[in-house]
Amino acid sequence: GEVQGKHRTGYHFQPLKNWINGGSCRGLHFPHSPLPFQLRIQFILRSYKSKLAGPMYYNGFYHLFYQYNPKGVVWGNIVWAHSISTDLINWTPLEHAIYPSKPLDINGCWSGSATILPAGNGPAILYTGIDAENRQVQNVAFPKNLSDPYLREWDKPDYNPVIVPDAGINASAFRDPTTAWTTADGTWNVLVGGRRKHRGVAFLYRSPDFANWTKAARPLHSAPRTGMWECPDFFPVALGEKKGMDTSATGDGLKHVLKVSLDKTRYEYYTVGRYYPRRGRYVPEKTSADDHTGLRFDYGNFYASKTFFDPAKGRRVLWGWSNESDSKTSDVPKGWAGIQTIPRVVWLDESGEQLVQWPVEELEKLRGEKVEAHNVELKKGEHHEADVEATFEVPALDKAEQFDPSWRDPQVLCSQKGADVSGGVGPFGLWVLASADREERTAVFFRVFKKDDGKLVVLMSHDVDVTNSPTVVNMFEQVDTSVVESFGAGGKTCITSHVYPLQAVGDGAHLYAFNNGEATVNVLQLEMWSMKKPKMN
Ligand code: DQQ
Fold it and tell me: How far is the CA of 111 from the centre of ligand 1 (A)?
């Protein structure tokens, strides 16, 4: 692991305040506990300022469009900035793709999505314009010149806006069109996020030609008391296969996923369900809680995510935006900042009930020197310096603590049973971004419990322990942010955290394996690589 120093100008810093107030402990249960415990942890490089608008792959290039304020350090003046890449890792910036230019988007070009049109007709972008009356309207844009491999310039046809809020729609809660998909007769379908009182809504619109859109009689889906649904994402996933599917794919061998970003709580949840194209309805399965208590892509700092189908590698790629806080008072000292997480491949788990995520393989290009450790035995209280793909094995589980059925919220449990609270089986795991004296450290760890029926429950957590005080923001000018992204249980449980160490930076950043539980744990394998710097804009 490596903490990157400041690597380009115009790079704003983030204070400690919000991150510390934001809670440092997160976790959850794995419904099915796999053994041995596999864990992949990444210290990733800060990659982008600001948040995602719409990613896509077209003609050999990955395009990242993101919400950006060219004028200042706070959210505002939103345009679609544009970078391209051939490998999702090294990025080249281009001129802004979409920016306020007409009454239909003069107050901002907000989130949306790209759709690749069939028959060589290139990509189209649907995005939310904030119009001259401050209404949220949906506009379409096309590349000015399809033979430009970079697709630098985008045109907004005069027939825009293509979707306006009708009398039944709240014009300030109507945004973020999805990637469009086709149904049987070639009809286009798209979702727009919204809210009716406290009910979150995914409005459905249909079009024969991508230009004329009509609202369906009923929304595709909605759920009570979830508030505004921002950045909806709706896509098919293959049954029993890792391969990704085009957004328009249909058939028996698939299910659908609906993800929404909750403005109210600033986190995302998804359901797995069935899509009925003719009825224009999506029905989550019983195993998918649909009241925002269910599954999340990530239990850490992760929002406004999007997926896209990558035909070059036959995979669906998920990208999230990670930011500390949306509050203006903190944005000012912190600067306009935010991170795109490393893109993750996403597919349906064998159970067909939840998604699995794993960082794109291209990330491995950045791997430098490798360090390996095998079969290290960790007795209680022991720690070994190492640096990160780790596999732990617990030979005997009889010391597992009893699971109290009243424990409902893994985050609460995690805050009571942190990495230093000794237990039966676990806590064991890794301290990352740790100073040599381990005063500063972020624990990524497991703890195993036994239920009355003999089943095991595993808690995976991040526990951040940074000794510096939030009042010394100015001292950190030289230090870059680090992000810890963890993928547990082969990618079923993901946690993203921001960590702001004072000592544990550069050569001062260490990694240790630790065990604070009674049961001995074997580190079957621990591999670690230093990470090289990509070309980042
Ligand atoms: N941010 C965008 C909106 C979206 C929200 C504006 C997500 O389109 O709803 O920058 O954080």
Answer: 6
